[in-house]
Design goal:
This is FAD-binding oxidoreductase. InterPro entries: FAD-dep_OxRdtase, FAD/NAD-bd_sf. With 347 residues, this protein is an alpha+beta fold. The protein has a single domain, classed as D-Amino Acid Oxidase, subunit A, domain 2 (D-Amino Acid Oxidase, Chain A, domain 2, 2-Layer Sandwich), CATH 3.30.9.10. Helices cover 29% and strands 19% of the residues. The strands form three sheets. The protein has a seven-stranded mixed sheet with strand order 1-9-5-8-7-6-4, covered by helices on one side. Strands 2-3 form a two-stranded parallel ribbon. It has a two-stranded antiparallel sheet with strand order 10-11. Helix 1 packs parallel to helix 8 and helix 3 packs across helix 8.
Length: 347
């Protein structure tokens, strides 16, 4: 599977890029982690913290697959709203999932503080805006749902905005087995040249929208803008470079529309990457009947890194002999459609 194409931005942020030796001898361990992307790295870290003898392997360079195309936007909110999750899975499962995601954001921050190389984890507020007037009611209901369950959010209507002026994993598993709940697309992203300031960008917050597929963007410490989205079915290989050029220009124009003062903004890096989601909006974590003694982390969706931490927490306990029944809600065998009682259906 061709995961990435174009010119990803991450390699320029870490020099020299760490190199790891090829496996040239027979080794034994208690847990073998296959895949050195975000899921594998976080899980291996958690397992070794618990003194579980762990080996991680990858056919590419570590972090060279889909994780290399990650745009670094982390939040507890997911592609599917909490309100919609409740309608699909019921209150207990939906709220628990969102709470796990919230906890995992803080755990990722704590993990970053322990690393020798600074990953520049910078807390930002997050602005979720309505792409059109018809989405405003949905956003207000989501605000009320989040507040009801203790999540700290604010709702800005048109009057409020006028007063304040506001501006906003491994997918190759599908080559190994096909999950009926998985949807594989291609997503595009750009990294711009630096801008002089962000005076028009409220708190330099993370920005995303209600449209599907959605546009999202954030700022970088060196005053650049990363924007992504425009998800679509993967084009033929011979047309991919052309689509990158076209879609990067679309993304650049979307930034200019939100921030007119960046009219001279240019693209320094543009890339495309395979991007997976699920039909029901939840990641897939756990076992599969066709692969005895195996677990899977398929943190598909825009909040993949946060869901990787959720998976690492659950599977670390599971592998230590502490059962985590919560894994049922992330079952790879679950139905992608809600049952009439809003409960999770396991086959």
């Amino acid at each position: 599977m061709i995961l990435n194409s174009g010119n990803p931005a991450w390699p320029h942020t870490l020099k020299p890029v760490p190199e790891y030796p090829a496996l040239d001898q027979a080794l034994e361990c208690d847990c073998l982690v296959v895949g050195g992307g975000m899921s594998g790295a976080i899980l291996a870290y958690k397992l070794t913290e618990q003194r579980i003898d762990t080996i991680l392997i990858d056919k590419r360079k570590i972090g060279g697959g889909s994780s290399a195309a990650n745009t670094g936007l982390l939040q507890y909110s997911n592609d599917k709203t909490l309100t919609s999750m409740i309608h699909t899975f019921g209150e207990d499962i939906a709220v628990t999932f969102y709470q796990y995601c919230e906890q995992s954001v803080y755990q990722l921050k704590e993990l970053c503080s322990k690393l020798s190389a600074s990953p520049e984890f910078i807390p930002r507020s997050s602005l979720y805006f309505a792409s059109n007037e018809n989405d405003a009611e949905m956003l207000q209901k989501e605000y009320q749902t989040l507040r009801k369950y203790g999540f700290k959010v604010d709702y800005w209507n048109q009057a409020t905005i006028a007063k304040k002026v506001v501006f906003t994993m491994g997918y190759e598993t599908q080559d190994m087995k096909k999950d009926r709940n998985a949807v594989i697309n291609i997503s595009y992203a750009i990294l711009t040249n630096p801008v002089e300031d962000f005076l028009d960008w409220h708190e330099r917050c993370l920005i995303w929208e209600t449209a599907r597929p959605y546009l999202y963007m954030r700022t970088t410490p060196d005053n650049r803008i990363i924007a992504g989205g425009l998800d679509e079915a993967p084009p033929p290989a011979e047309k991919r470079e052309g689509r990158i050029l076209h879609q990067s220009e679309v993304l650049l124009n979307e930034i200019r529309k939100l921030f007119p003062r960046y009219s001279r903004l240019e693209t320094d890096y543009a890339w495309a990457s395979i991007f997976g989601t699920t039909h029901d909006g939840m990641p897939m974590i756990g076992t599969h009947p066709g692969y005895p003694n195996c677990y899977f982390i398929e943190a598909y969706g825009g909040n993949g890194t946060v869901c990787c931490m959720v998976a690492a927490n659950l599977l670390t306990d599971e592998l230590r002999g502490r059962p985590r029944p919560e894994l049922n809600m992330f079952s790879l065998q679950r139905s992608s459609k809600p049952s009439p009682s809003n409960s999770l259906t396991i086959h």
